[in-house]
Structures are given as C-alpha cells and as structure tokens.
Amino acid sequence: MLALLAIALPASLPPAVEAALPSAVKTFSGSLTSANPNVTQPWQLSRDLPDPGFLFHYAITGGSQPDDVVYVYIEGTYDAWDLNWPLMGEGWTYCSPYSFQPCPFDAGSYNVTAQAGPASRLPISYSIDFYRVPNPPVDFSGHIPANSTVRRSIFGVLLPSAATNSKIVLGVTSGSYEFFVDNEDETVVNRNTQLSLNFTKGFHLLEVDAETEGIGEDVAWSVQMSGPPKLDVRIVDICPTLNPKSGQSVCVTHAEATASSGTPAVSYQWTVSGGKLNSTAGQWVTWTAPPGVVASYTLTVNASAPGYVSGTDSLIVQVTPEFPTATLPFLGAVVLASLLVIRRRFRHQPCKQ
Question: What is the rounded distance in angstroms from the CA atom of residue 146 to the CA atom of residue 253?
Fold first, then answer.
C-alpha cells in the first residue's frame, strides 16, 4: 500500500464520489424501555454471507451518559457471533471467517437481541444493519460520542481489480482520528483530507481510530472511496421451504439492481445448482424443484450493464423430505414397535427338532 498524495481540503467537503452503501441484507430497529430493556427479533437468513464476511452497522440514539449503551447478541444456527461491546453513537465493525473476529454467517435461523446496559437510562432507540462487503465507490460515516468507550469503526471494501491512484476523501466535522488501511497507519485526520492510494485486487480493511487521536472528543467522521460505477443487486423475494410431495415445488422470485450513478440498461443472468428455471434471463424467474430429491439449492443472479462493475447475489432454497419432520419420531416409534412385536413372536415359536 503506497500513499501517493495527502492534501487538506476546504472545510466544506464535496462528495468524492456519487455513491452509497448497497442495500442492507437485513435491518433491525426498535426502542429499549424500562418495561422492555431487551428486544429479540427472529431472522431467517436465506443466503450465505461468505468470505470476506460482512459489515455490521449500528446507530444508537437517546442516551448521552457513559452507561447509556446497547449490546447486540446473535444466537441461532451457528452461534458464531457475540458483539460484547457497549455501543453508543454510530459506527461499524467487520466480521469474517478469516479475520481476527471469526464468525461464519451461513444461511439459517437466528435471533438478534438488542439489550440495554444494566445502568442505562431508558428509553434508547437502536438501528442495526448487516451488509455484504461492498465494491467502491462507497461512502461510510459515523459518530463517536466523547464519553463512548468504543472509539473505533472497522469496515472494508472488495476491489474486483487492482486500482492505481484511488481517491479516498476523509471527512471530519468534529474531533480528530487516525485512519488505517490494512492495519497500516495512513494519516491523522483533524480536517478534511484527501489520499491517493494504490490497491491490489481483493479485500482491504479500513479503520477509523479515535483511541489516541480524538480521545475524549466528540468525533464525527466520513470515509468516501472512489471507483468505477457499479451495480448492487439483491434477490428480493425469499423462496419458502418447498415440499414437492405436498404440491409445493415452485418458487417465483425476482432481483433488483441499483446503480451507483446514472440509469443504465441492466441485464440479468440466472444460474441454479439444480432443478429447472423457466428462463435464465430477466428480472423475474420461476424455479421448479427436481422431483424426488431432498436438498438445498442455490439460485444466483448476476446483474451487468456496459461500463459498470457487475453485481451478484444468491438465494438458498430448501426442499424438504416427503414426510414432514414432525412425523419422523412417530414413524420411528412405529418401526421400533413393529420390530419388537416380530422379535417377541420369534422368541415364542417352538424350536423344530
């Protein structure tokens, strides 16, 4: 990583790029009160969030004292992640199966709990979001209250190809902070600053750190990173669990693509790990499960447009056994009882000489 240029910009900082984060994979929000100091919400995740992991965003409002904090816990299929930090203000963290915070996040059933700190003065409102790691161009921002004990935001970007002289605009409207790229300290930010950096292809970790610079300060920051125009695509309709034996063998779903700038003509291309699609092109598709096969199937869509970095999303569809799961213990008991009856009959038969 090579910093080619670092210049101060005027206090009034224009956006570096025309960009925003992609649509959140999932958003949870609510209010914690004295009557309900913790709120648990279910989440049926129908797609894997594979390497390089995911980004977690939080925004906590309503409290200003050091004890006015919120904790977030995720329990479920993999019991893999517990953000045991007292959250206040707005910020980010990054989690990946191969990072310093191991947390595989595969499709499954989860419960997401937001819990007020034991000494928090309520009510406190919260909004928490999960994102796939985005491609540039992208725009991150956050707010670290002066009395917050969590004074870092960690996030990342995924570059589809190497980038030379990639522009990063570091904004600050109050306080100061250090900016890191791939754990290397790039600069101290106490006024709006622009960097020009070289990036290799792949994932890069970005960090805003106010643990030394900015300690005890109210820090409001932003990080904007330039890049070629891109498409963000997501499959909107989640397929229910299918049971072909009960006549449930078809899923109708569609995708929506959002461009970082402009209004390009978008093409959609679908693939599937099994079963049959009525078409491999278009926003809407109908998928039919194969007969007599119990498995999980993955539907994948790629959105492309001339001059834009393409986007991809996947959806996992579960096909159940012919017999509902709830009947399996009963069937097992029937089979066991039958075997016992046969065994008793055999034992009471006279031996033949």
Answer: 46
Tens digits of residue pLDDT in 85-136: 899 999 999 886 555 555 667 888 899 999 999 999 999 999 999 999 999 9
Same domain, 193 and 142: yes
41, with CB counted inside 10 A (0-12, 13-18, 19+), is: middle
Nearest one of 63, 40, 37 to 118, comparing CA atoms? 37
Name the residue range of residue 39's domain: 3-225
Domain count, the chain: 2
Token pair 């939080």 is at which residue? 58
Residues 58 and 142 in one domain: yes
**Looking at the domain assignment, is residue 186 inside a domain?**
yes
| 225 membership: H or E segment, kind and range | strand 219-225
Does residue 212 sit in the same domain as residue 262?
A: no
Query: What are residue 20's phi and psi, to 5 degrees?
Result: -150, 170
Residue 334 phi, psi (nearest 5): -60, -45
Any domain includes 180: yes
- Dist CA 33 CA 173 (whole Å): 31
In a domain, 337, yes or no: no
Distances, alpha carbon 240 to alpha carbons 15, 45, 243, in Å: 41, 12, 10
Instruction: Please name the amino acid found at residue 11.
Output: A
| Residue with tokens 């990036």, as numbered in its chain | 199
